[in-house]
Fold these 2 entries.
Entry 1:
Amino acid sequence: MPRAVAVSPGTKTPEPVAAVEVRDLTKRYPGDVRALDGVGFTVPTGTVFGLLGPNGAGKSTTMKILTTLARPDSGTVRIAGLDVVAEPRRVRRVIGCVTQRSGVDPAATGRENLTLQGRLHGMSRAELARRVDELVELLDVGAVAERVAGGYSGGTKRKLDIAMSLIHRPRVLFLDEPTTGLDPEIRSEIWEHIARLARQERLTILLTTHYLEEADRLADRVSILDRGRVVAEGSPGRLKDDLNGDAVVVELVEPGMVGAARRALDGLTLVREVVAEGVAVRARVDDAAVAVPQVLAALTADGVAAASVTVAMPSLHDVYLHYAGRSIRETER
Ligand SMILES: Nc1ncnc2c1ncn2[C@@H]1O[C@H](COP(=O)(O)OP(=O)(O)OP(=O)(O)O)[C@@H](O)[C@H]1O
């Protein structure tokens, strides 16, 4: 946790303890769509915060308002102490954004992309050259920095996008689904980079994700949004602990039986929630020792064959399912 007040090196002005402070945010779209209905959360300086929620929950709308791209109907947002509605230009100077749409110019080299970005921020030549070198090393893109970005792999391109968002040394970094569409191996490499950035650059990071393992791995705290409201907030560990009970995961012999397995387990009073996960079903129960025999009996009675049964502690998937009322996998695009 951060100290009460920190001093940033260049300005000697005290940094507010909360890097992001969101209060009572509301936003309606035409057609009486209530996209945000009183959203509030605080992100302490130097921490990583995850915004989770099913499609349509209000994550993008929240991100747009926080990054000055949209105005709220009511409520307040302060970024590094600055009001996003009253001082959008100053806010833009202290934030960096990585959106799902890449800002990389495929015809320019990695180094040229970074340099151009720095010029757009009005950085001096010497300072920019230093910063480009620093970021090339930090994001480990030295081997490809002189090659045109059009030939980069998806992971390298994403790293360049992240580096570009950091060129002007922002205090708060917004990452919108930073690893969507990447291979699992590349995804964990990007996670390592993000975690390192948070430490080395003393960044506050706010990310949206629908990979719950990403939030579990990176976020100090998460907020689960549903229908424009925060339905749960806390550290991933605390949210999991609060759920109590166990998760019973039954892997099925036949993928086609997932629906039948789900219906069979839905009918058991000791199963609190059940969700399909690929060729498995995941049920949350109070006591796995009591539940497993009944789970297996119910499946057998309905003609569903189990390949394996695993008992686990509740995961962030179970937390999400509990608060959002549905699995994030059911809501994936
Ligand atoms: N420009 C718009 N006009 C009308 N309705 C909109 C507009 N943008 C978003 N909405 C609606 O507002 C609600 C919140 O959308 P938002 O995009 O913020 O959710 P989200 O959590 O980011 O979902 P996703 O992950 O699908 O982007 C949804 O019901 C959505 O359909």
Note: Residues 6-235 form a domain with the Rossmann fold fold (CATH 3.40.50.300).
Entry 2:
Amino acid sequence: MTLLKVNHLKVYYPVRGGFFRRVVDYVKAVDDISFEIREGETYGLVGESGCGKTTTGRTIIGLLKATSGEILFNDVDLTKLKRREFFRYRRDIQMIFQDPYSSLNPKKRILDIVAEPFRNYEKFSPQEEKRRVQELLERVGISPDSIYKYPHEFSGGQRQRIGIARALALKPKLIIADEPVSALDVSVQAQVLNFMKDIQEEFKLSYLFISHDLGIIRHMCDRIGIMYRGRLVEEGTGEDIYTNPQHIYTKRLIAAIPDIKPEERDKHKALRKEINQEFSEHFDRYLDAEGRIFDLRPVTETHKVALPLES
Ligand SMILES: Nc1ncnc2c1ncn2[C@@H]1O[C@H](COP(=O)(O)OP(=O)(O)OP(=O)(O)O)[C@@H](O)[C@H]1O
């Protein structure tokens, strides 16, 4: 069953200039993308910095306004809802942010941080609220006795777990995780990622997982969308993308993953050089006359790619 369907979404930021601060141009941060997330699925958006991943996530959760297109959540178009109606649906979509150092208010106690969604949506008594917060903290591996502590008293990994507890408070259906581990030490990253996988089944969650790191995306995601310049250039399962990448940009992303086996280092280096050369020489074949990327077309049932029309 489809939980979220993004249809031809565009998000443009106006660029103002001149004496009257008129709109002189637009940054086309997200430029006509479509994808869907099914119940219980993890869909990964990957691409280099500035390709529009964060803008996509923030628009779905209502922090930014769509320029055009639809965001269907359980068949309801969130872009058409009035503020109050949107607020009702919004409880089923929560977000985990990149930086656990800045996403938790340093002046608030853990109790107040994790209870925030309850205070917005439920009217629990203080005792009930405290009990539920403690239960959530316990589930994410934080001592329930910590409720009166402040964020700075925890490590990065623990803070991200507190962020996850807050996101889980209302038992959402979809969590948007925007680079959830990139601010953490590598040793802690795996713990947090595995923990996110563990709770997925228990809470029947779907994830939109945003990252610039294709290795992490592959580990976490059932299906992957490759973003470039505000467009999706390829979409498929991890298997499709890794074993049979079609788009030159996808090949370049894969070639950029550091080689792990020392004996394969030279081979990998040569491949990377070849792909980078092909990318710089032939990328314009993948754009139309106005520099736009073509629409996705099917390669197989699960795999789609934006290839030049003549190929
Ligand atoms: N408030 C804004 N005003 C104007 N342009 C913006 C604004 N926010 C983002 N952009 C531009 O929109 C494009 C997409 O940005 P976005 O942050 O969505 O990309 P991203 O893939 O998430 O990158 P990163 O991983 O660096 O956050 C970039 O070119 C960025 O410079």
Note: The domain at 2-221 is CATH 3.40.50.300 (Rossmann fold).
